[in-house]
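Example (one chain per record):
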Amino acid sequence: MSIRIYNTLTRKKEEFVPLEPGKVKMYVCGPTVYNHIHIGNTRPAIFFDTVRRYLIYKGYDVQFVSNFTDVDDRIIQAGIEQGISAQEVAELYIDSYHSYTSKLGVQKADEHPRVTENMNEIVDFIDQLVQKGIAYEANGDVYYRTNHFDDYGKLSHQKTSELFEGVRIGVGEAKESPTDFTLWKKAKPQEVSWDSPWGQGRPGWHIECSSMIRKYLGDTIDIHGGGIDLVFPHHENEIAQTEALTEKPLANYWMHNAMLNIDNQKMSKSLGNFVRVNDVLAQHDPQVVRFFMLSGQYRSPINFSDLLLDQASNGFDRLKTVVANLAHRFKTALDTDVSEEQLEQLGKWKAAFEEAMNDDFNTAAAISVLFELTREINTVLQEESAPLKLLQQYHTTLLTLAGVLGIVLAEEPELLDADIEQLIEERQQARRERNFARADEIRDQLSQQGIILEDTPQGMRWRRK
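Predicted structure:
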């Protein structure tokens, strides 16, 4: 069975056919880094990490890009409040993002481009839109003409007049139409800015992703993902910008996860239920949080509460317990022959798991398969004559399928000092070879094991937390 994806653009499930056989180009909008991420930010991070893992499991070569917006009004304001530069604010919270998502089992993207590192491409993209008459400059600002793009509204499935009902031109704006949106903002006094053909300024939010997708993945990509709150205006504007310029589809499949509520209410600062991920991870196992996030179908809203997390913890512990029980039985199980029929039966669980994931990455159904598998394992464990090889196959199957979801059911053995030294040397070699992805993987592995790396004049040193 092939993978089927619910495409927000067409509002139906479609068979996934990549642009290039065996390869997937995938982009997911990342955070604006002005504070520690909130718990709602972890849902797309965890879900799209799982999509990537499953595509790799199915044999695809996945090129995955997720950006950081590192210049924004909120970042500038945070810098003023903290007495540091906007760049320092961004750096602080990018590190924070990687730290917390790593604990949640989220692997780094192949590329994490930042807006400030791609300013030339952004300015060039805007300039091309201006040259085509799709955008225009007014008093140092640059705006996009939405009425020049006939398909505007096709992602959110609404007419332009409906999307912008009641919108007026704001004070100080020189738009031709209330529906036009900003591509380039004229710099305010003492504000961080960059050179452009229209004077000092910085980009609008929507143009950033269009530019970085085109630079890192090309004119058209396979999958574009993000939260449902990004459909309009962010992703709608991305489509308008890119497709007006390239005259090609921006993405063939648009995927959006539903929102996360707190105690059955929308999370917001005004309601006092705004929850930062650092506060959650101080009280709950990160693997339980990941397990909880994947226990619901991604297009359905999920409710978040300490009670529901405790319930998820109970389910997660059931899976871990059966893995531990299997490992314990290895010591006493008989090394007798296993029939082909017994081994073939194990294949049904792999098939059931893949059937669930092939159906629009239904992680909730996939987790149900894991629970059904554990029930069978518990029955087998009651048989004193259960062969060792059969138990080992059950163990491998359960760990493998859970691992596709990024769920770790077996504790990694603690690293010995010699292992740590070897990994550090491997990391140093990777850095010398400019293989920074591998260097980051080793650093994250050591961090998860409680190993802190320190640069000293005498070289790299490590210590345990």
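Caption: The two ends are 47 Å apart (CA to CA).
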